[in-house]
Specification:
The protein has helices spanning 183-190, 200-204, 214-221, 263-272, 284-287, 293-300, 303-306, 320-330, 337-359, 377-387, 405-419, 426-429; strands spanning 6-8, 12-16, 176-180, 193-196, 228-233, 236-242, 254-260, 366-370, 392-394, 439-441. The chain has 450 residues and is of the alpha/beta class. It has a 5-stranded mixed beta sheet, sandwiched between helices. The chain has a 3-stranded mixed beta sheet with strand order 1-4-10, sandwiched between helices. Strand 8 (366-370), helix 10 and strand 9 (392-394) form a beta-alpha-beta unit. It is globular and about 60 Å long. The relative contact order is 0.16.
C-alpha cells in the first residue's frame, strides 16, 4: 500500500496563547516511504510505517515531500536550517506595521490603517474598522464589524451577523495562531496534498498549541529502563519528559517550553560583531569568558520561568528588546563580550535545569539533546555540570538525527493528520482533548494527486 505524498508546509507562525506569547516555528520534511503491517510495540497503532524506526529515520524513507515534490535520497538534503533566522525579529505584536505584515487582501495590499492595536482582524479586503481593539476581538461578522457590546464576557458565540445573546459566556479564553503560508495555494501549485496550520486545532481545544513533538518523542525515544528528558535547543528550548514505558506511562508524558535556547545568544553575537557573525561556533567565544552568576539569578526571576506548565514562549519575549535590557543590566558588572555570552549561555542552561527541578516528578536518568544548540559544545558542557551525574547525550546516540528530529516530527504529525490520528497530548498543551492537528488541502486537479 502506497502512502500519499504530502507537502508538510514549511511555515512560520505567530501564536498568541494564554500567556500572550508568540511562537515562530518552521519545519520541512522530504522523502517517501511505503507502509506495511506495523509492529505491535508501537503505542499509537497504524500511525507509524514499519521503517520509521530511530535507527533509520532518513529523508529517503519518510512518506512526505517538499513543496516541489522533490524526493532526496539522503538526509543531507533535508531541512532548511536558515528558515528560522530568515524570520525578521520585528514580527512581534508590538510592532506589526504595514511594511512587515502578513496581512491584507489577495493582492498583498496593506491598508495604511493596519496598526498593532487593530490586527490581525478584518474583512476579506484586509480593512480594519477603527473600533477593532483587543477588548472586542476577534469576533464579528463577515465584514469584520464588531457590535459595541462584544466583550470577552459574552463571547465567542453568535450567529452569522455577529449578534451575541447576552447570556452566552465562554468557557475559556482561547489563544490565537497566525501561520505564514497558504496550504491551499501550495496544494494547487504543486498538485500535491498539503497539510499546514498544525497548532490551531489544539488552541481551539483550549491548549497552548505547543509543544507538539512530545507524542512523537514518546513513539521514537521512549525507554523501558530510563526516565528521559528530550531537550530541544532551537531558538527557544523545549522539553519532553518520558517516564519508563510501563503501565500508564503515556499519561505521564509531560512537556513545555523551558525558555531561551539560541535566540539571545545569536542576537548577542550579531550585536557584538556588528552583524558579521550570527552565531558562536561551538560556543567557543562564550567558553573563553566567565559567567556572572548574580546576573543569571536576576534573569531567572523573570515571570515566565516560574509559571508552571503547560506553557510556551517565543521570540516576542526573548527578543532584541529583551537582549537590550540584559545588556543594560550587565553594565553594573563591567562584562567583556565573552563574559556576557557565557552568562547568556548559563541562563539557557540554568532555565532548563531549574525547570526540571521545579516541574518534573523526578529528575531524569538521561537527557537527550537535539536542535542546533546540541552542537554548542560549551552549552552542552555547562548543562552536564549543572545536571551533575545525569548523563547528557544527543538523540544521535540513540539513532535519531538531532538536526532533523523536528522536521521528522512534523512530517509524522502530517502523516497522522492524513490518517485521522490525534497528534497532541492534552496534558502537555493544556487542551481539553486529543485532536487531529493540521489543515489538509487537496488540489483541485485530482489527476496530480497520488
Amino acid at each position: 500500500m502506497k502512502v500519499d505524498r504530502l507537502n508538510v508546509e514549511s511555515s512560520s507562525e505567530l501564536k498568541v496563547g494564554r500567556l500572550n506569547v508568540v511562537r515562530v516555528r518552521a519545519a520541512e520534511a522530504e522523502g517517501h516511504a511505503t507502509r506495511t503491517a506495523l509492529p505491535k510495540a508501537w503505542p499509537f497503532g497504524q500511525g507509524f510505517p514499519d521503517n520509521l524506526q530511530p535507527d533509520n529515520l532518513q529523508a529517503g524513507n519518510l512518506p512526505f515531500s517538499n513543496a516541489k515534490g522533490e524526493q532526496p535520497a539522503t538526509e543531507t538534503n533535508l531541512g532548511q536550517k536558515a528558515t528560522l533566522r530568515e524570520q525578521p525579529d520585528n514580527l512581534q505584536p508590538a510592532n506589526l506595521q504595514p511594511a512587515n505584515l502578513p496581512y491584507g487582501n489577495a493582492k498583498g495590499e496593506q491598508p495604511d490603517n493596519l496598526q498593532p492595536t487593530n490586527l490581525p482582524y478584518g474583512n476579506a479586503k484586509g480593512e480594519q474598522p477603527a473600533n477593532l481593539q483587543p477588548a472586542n476581538l476577534p469576533y464579528g461578522n463577515a465584514k469584520g464589524e464588531q457590535p459595541a457590546n462584544l466583550q470577552p464576557t459574552n463571547l465567542p458565540y453568535g450567529n452569522a451577523k455577529g449578534e451575541q445573546p447576552a447570556n452566552l459566556q465562554p468557557l475559556t479564553t482561547l489563544g490565537y495562531s497566525l501561520q505564514l503560508g497558504r496550504g491551499e495555494v501550495i496544494a494547487e501549485i504543486t498538485g500535491i496534498k498539503t497539510i499546514s496550520n498544525f497548532r490551531v486545532a489544539d488552541i481551539a481545544a483550549g491548549g497552548e498549541g505547543a509543544p507538539l513533538v512530545p507524542k512523537i518523542d514518546a513513539c521514537l525515544l521512549r525507554s523501558s529502563t530510563h526516565n528521559r528528558c528530550i531537550q530541544n535547543i532551537g531558538g527557544i528550548g523545549n522539553v519532553t519528559y518520558l517516564p519508563v514505558s510501563e503501565g500508564n506511562w503515556l499519561e505521564q508524558v509531560y512537556g513545555w517550553d523551558t525558555g531561551p535556547g539560541n535566540a539571545l545568544l545569536d542576537l548577542a553575537v550579531e550585536y557584538f560583531t556588528n552583524g558579521r557573525k550570527t552565531y558562536d561556533y561551538n560556543g567557543e567565544w562564550a567558553a573563553s569568558g566567565t559567567p556572572c552568576e548574580a546576573l543569571v539569578e536576576q534573569w531567572l526571576a523573570q515571570e515566565f520561568f516560574n509559571i508552571p506548565p503547560p506553557k510556551s514562549t517565543g521570540r516576542e519575549l526573548f527578543s532584541r528588546d529583551y537582549l537590550k535590557q540584559c545588556l543594560v543590566e550587565s553594565e553594573a558588572y563591567n562584562l567583556a563580550p565573552a563574559d556576557f555570552l557565557a552568562t547568556l549561555t548559563e541562563l539557557t542552561v540554568a532555565s532548563i535545569v531549574e525547570s526540571y527541578r521545579n516541574f518534573l516528578p523526578q529528575m531524569p536518568d538521561q537527557v537527550l539533546l537535539c536542535g542546533g544548540g546540541a552542537s554548542n559544545l560549551y552549552l552542552k558542557q555547562r548543562l552536564q555540570i549543572r545536571l551533575d551525574s545525569v548523563p547528557v547525550l544527543t538523540t544521535d546516540q540513540v539513532g535519531l538525527s538531532r538536526d532533523f528530529k523536528e522536521a521528522i516530527a512534523f512530517a509524522v504529525l502530517a502523516h497522522w493528520r492524513n490518517l485521522g490520528i490525534p497528534g497532541n497530548l492534552p496534558q502537555v498543551t493544556g487542551a481539553s482533548e486529543a485532536v487531529c492537528l493540521g489543515n489538509l488541502y487537496s488540489p483541485r486537479s485530482q489527476h496530480h494527486s497520488s
